[in-house]
Design a protein that fits this description.
Layout: H1 2-11, E1 19-23, H2 29-37, H3 54-57, E2 62-66, H4 73-85, E3 87-88, E4 97-98, E5 102-105, H5 111-116, H6 122-128, H7 146-161, H8 169-179, H9 189-195, H10 207-210
Parallel strand pairs: 1-2, 2-5
Antiparallel strand pairs: 3-4
Amino acid sequence: MARRIYELKKARHAVKGDFVDVNCATLRGDGAMSTLFGHTKGAFTGALKDRAGLLRTADGGVLFLDEIRELGLGEQAMLLRALEEKTFLPLGSDRESRSDFQLIAGTNPDLFSAVREGHFREDLLARINLLWTFSLPGLQSRPEDIEPNLQFELDQYARKTGNHVTFSKEARKRFLDFALSGGAAWNGNFRGLNAARSSHGHSRPWWTDLG
């Protein structure tokens, strides 16, 4: 969804830069600061050369921070400053970098609860909650979206592997009977649909067993 918003903005010349995305749950410690804000050579052990960071890479474009709740309070403070002043300090540097980007944030936990619990900055939430918030129900609540996405998954598989795969009518019916039944919780949403496997645990995609 974030990428689609970017594509629409790009088509309307509302942005000129790139779409840059990261799952904040993968960022920890100095690695989080470095990934987001960049670093200078020698800023920490293993920093063998300068790194621009994602905020600078997103200059003129859109930065999508998925699971923004997972950012540490220090990263949240620096992000707030970058949003308000369009400047930030790379790790180990005393010279400011500039970046003018648009931010889209994704979260599974409720950020208002995170603020009350002291895990998320209230001022940052106020800053990113200015325009609109879109609540996307889980796949379990949107069974009508499962069938249209079957072809999408097949197309994705074909692009990645070069192998074109189709469903037989019987295989499609069998999978949809399972997917729409109470036995398919889809707790992982579309990641679960993408990663679905046959019941005997093979690593092949589910359609190779049903087709």
